[in-house]
Specification:
By secondary structure, the protein is of the alpha/beta class. It contains 15 helices and eleven strands. The chain starts with 8 loop residues before the first helix and ends in a 29-residue tail after the last helix.
């Protein structure tokens, strides 16, 4: 298959900048692909066709005038629907925000425009990014392009599935406990969670503010690195933004792993519940790094075993505080009541889904008088122990290697009635969020059923470059895989324009 479905983002940008292709043509092809395929996948909540065409025309005009539009010139990008887009609905896949049009763009959206990229739509997610399967969206689930009867992962399932299906070469997601890396693994694409503070959170609708981080999806490590380089950097609008300049990742692609020290994390690969096929692929990935010149040794970090319970106290506690702003007064849904308190209660009852309510209740309990020290306070102490444990590990290793997820994609509906089983889907990814470190999931073969397996490269804070170098080696060594069963058709030329209408939230 060729055309829009498989052309690398960097190749598109290079062709547009050389005037070998027109940005308008590229965008039309991807809008046509969305119209052709997305009805069966549910990746997008909003297709911003008219805005995308205008933006593509601006890119072409800049090229015609001899100006460089940027490193991502004309590249279509899908944006998770918890990132604010001026004048375009941002719902967080929740009824409580349905129809809300932000008056400003998130910083990462502004930086996409500055890099010459073209936003083609807003993608589906678990409501307020709370989930691991994109089944808790108020507007219906997203399906995995490799098997539409299976989940794409979550919470950024719409973004991961859109990239896997060839509907966009690049996408943005957010990662609070694995919400980029886990769906990337299940959909067979690259997903990167950057160091906390290297990418602005301004305009990202908050779930858990000390954990949330925006990051890229792509079909290659090089494309993911390019998208990261375009959105990273200090932002005065974000008080948690790092002032130091983050290292560029693009130059690290192809630098190799000669002399690199790699630790194979026992607790994230050999733990009970990790699928045998996943373990086998992680072992093969370790062998590939060793063959490329790295030194690979097992490492035990026992503290990681308590990361999951610590996370499910800290994240809901922060969510309880952050979601208190949805009161039916300032924006979004409002359900009238007898008085203000009744209106607040009715609005939240109608607007929030079951999983969001569950986490608000958990968080409120953890923060309540008499329980704060026993739950929230203790979880913060555990978080400190995990940070210290990672620090000790990185004294002996440059990067760490593990499974991204304990299993491949599970069936739709399989875990919706078992919250604990759903939460366990993030057991391999959560420790990195608690530490604030970067990590990247890279596709590495399939399981016995042909479903994608992802392996995870972890690095210390601001270690994105060495992480990308290792990920690129794994990408080159990965076993061949087949294309998704549901993917964009082969497209050449200007496309059919079937994405003309701007779609509303489902």
């Amino acid at each position: 298959m060729s055309g829009a479905a498989t052309t690398p983002a960097l190749a598109i940008a290079d062709a547009v900048r050389r005037r070998e292709r027109r940005a308008v043509e590229v965008v039309e092809e991807h809008l046509a692909a969305i119209a052709e395929v997305d009805g069966g996948l549910g990746c997008f909540l909003e297709v911003t066709a008219d805005q995308a065409r205008r933006r593509a025309a601006e890119v072409d005009a800049a090229v015609d005038a001899g100006r460089d539009p940027g490193p991502l010139a004309g590249v279509p990008v899908a944006v998770k629907d918890n990132l604010c887009t001026q004048g375009v609905p941002t719902t967080c896949a929740s009824r409580i925000l349905q129809g809300w049009h932000p008056p400003y763009d998130a910083t990462v959206v502004t930086r996409l425009a500055g890099a010459g990229a073209v936003v083609v739509g807003k993608t589906n997610l678990d409501e307020f990014a709370m989930g691991s399967s994109t089944e808790s969206s108020a507007f219906g689930p997203t399906r995995n392009p490799h098997d539409p009867e299976r989940v794409p992962g979550g919470s950024s399932g719409g973004s991961a599935a859109a990239v896997a299906a060839g509907l966009a070469p690049l996408a943005l997601g957010s990662d609070t406990g694995g919400s980029i890396r886990q769906p990337a693994a299940l959909c067979g694409v690259v997903g990167m969670k950057p160091t906390y503070g290297t990418v602005s959170r301004y305009g990202l609708v908050a779930f858990a503010s000390s954990l949330d981080q925006v990051g890229p999806f792509a079909r290659s490590v090089a494309d993911a690195a390019a998208l990261y380089d375009a959105i990273a950097g200090h932002d005065p609008c974000d008080s948690t933004s790092l002032h130091q300049v983050p290292p560029a990742c693009g130059p690290a692609v192809g630098s190799g792993v000669g002399g690199l020290r790699v630790g194979l994390v026992t607790e994230l690969t050999e733990a009970e519940g990790v699928q045998a096929d996943v373990r086998r692929r992680v072992a093969e990935a370790a062998e590939a790094l060793a063959s490329a010149g790295a030194t690979v040794d097992p490492v035990s970090i026992p503290e990681l075993r308590v990361a999951l319970p610590a996370y499910y106290l800290l994240a809901p506690a922060e969510a309880s505080s952050n979601l208190a702003r949805y009161d039916g007064v300032r924006y979004g849904l409002r359900v009238d009541g007898d008085d203000v308190a009744d209106m607040n209660a009715r609005t939240r009852e109608a607007g929030f889904g079951a999983e969001v309510k569950r986490r608000i209740l958990l968080g409120t309990y953890a923060l309540s008088a008499g329980y704060y020290d026993a739950y929230y306070g203790q979880a913060q102490r555990v978080r400190t122990l995990i940070i210290q444990a990672f620090r000790r590990a990185y004294e002996d290793f440059d990067v760490l290697l593990s499974a991204t997820t304990p299993s491949t994609a599970f069936r739709l509906g399989e875990k919706v009635d078992d919250p604990l089983a759903m939460y366990l889907s993030d057991v391999c990814t959560i420790p990195t969020n608690l530490a604030g470190h970067p990590a990247m999931s890279v596709p590495f073969g399939t399981d016995g059923a042909g479903l994608p397996v992802g392996v995870q490269v972890l690095a210390p804070a601001l270690g994105e470059a060495v992480m990308v170098a290792a990920a690129a080696v794994l990408e080159q060594a990965a076993p061949p895989t087949s294309l998704p069963t549901v993917a964009a058709p082969t497209l050449t030329g200007a496309g059919t324009g079937r994405g003309a209408a701007t779609g509303g939230a489902r």
